[in-house]
Amino acid sequence: MKPPHFILLLIILQTLHHLPVILAVKYVAINDAKNYPGGKRFEKEIGIPYTLQIMKDINHYIWEIFQQKIESDRKQVGIATVFIRQYDGAEAITYGETVNVSALYLQGYQGNLKWEYTSLLHHELTHVFQWDGKGQAPVGLIEGMADYMILGYDFTARFLEYCEGLEPGFVAALSKKMRHNFSENFFVELLGKPVAQLWSEYKAKYGNIK
Ligand SMILES: [Zn+2]
Predict the structure, then answer these.
(1) Which residues, in sequence order, are bridge partners of residue 149?
(2) Which of 45, 68, 146, 171 could form a disulfide with 74 if both were Cys (CB 3.0 to 4.6 A apart)?
């Protein structure tokens, strides 16, 4: 093949390849705090590849919850960006399409950092993709909707983690039982207690559940 044809072919192929991408959201994640303890902890316990993966997953989850199945229902977002930055203040702040996560917050967080970070991104990315009545919606409602996105991830998942802690293998066993039907009695069979009792014990132990 002569070079000009080859180049033309490349351009056509690239155009074809990039066409659907024009409408799709791009995800960018940057660790701007690599030289700080929080940035180092981020690299060790979370990382950029994980961030890019969950950004996409969370984005799709948000569309699903808001039932925005088609492009025209959705807020147009070009490039969603997550920055890990060294600053003192809120754990994370979102402006437009950009989420800033505090490296200081990551540094000081006690507990499962990856889990906390994933919850945090559910909240912050909701701000990127949610409608806000062109700025007229009350802040409490906007924040409530962002927290609502965490629930699906957090609420049941944390409870299941708690049950797993009581009886290792619980989640797998429950999943197996759920193949053909479901009964709340599965909890009694596996953990010896009704689910309502487990739930109140869990709440008593971990207090501030949203
Ligand atoms: Zn918020």
Answers:
(1) none
(2) 68
Looking at residue 113, its pLDDT comes to: 94
Distance between CA atoms of 50 and 132, rounded to whole angstroms?
A: 28
By the 8 A CB rule, do 101 and 48 touch?
no
pLDDT, residue 12, reads 55
Cα of 83 vs centre of ligand 1, distance in Å, is 16
Q: How many angstroms separate the CA atoms of 111 and 158, rounded? A: 13
Residues 6 or more apart from 77 whose CB is under 8 A from it? Answer: 25, 97, 128, 129
Q: Distance between CA atoms of 67 and 63, rounded to whole angstroms?
A: 6
pTM of the entire structure?
0.69
Q: What is the tens place of the pLDDT at every residue in 47-91?
A: 999 999 999 999 999 998 899 989 999 999 999 999 999 999 999
Q: Cα of 44 to ligand 1 centre, how many Å?
A: 26
User: Residue 194 Cα, ligand 1 centroid: separation in angstroms?
Assistant: 35
Query: Would you call 34 exposed, middle or buried from its count of C-beta atoms within 10 A (0-12, 13-18, 19+)?
Result: middle
Give CA–CA dist 146/126, Å, rounded. 5
With tokens 């994640």, the residue in question is 29
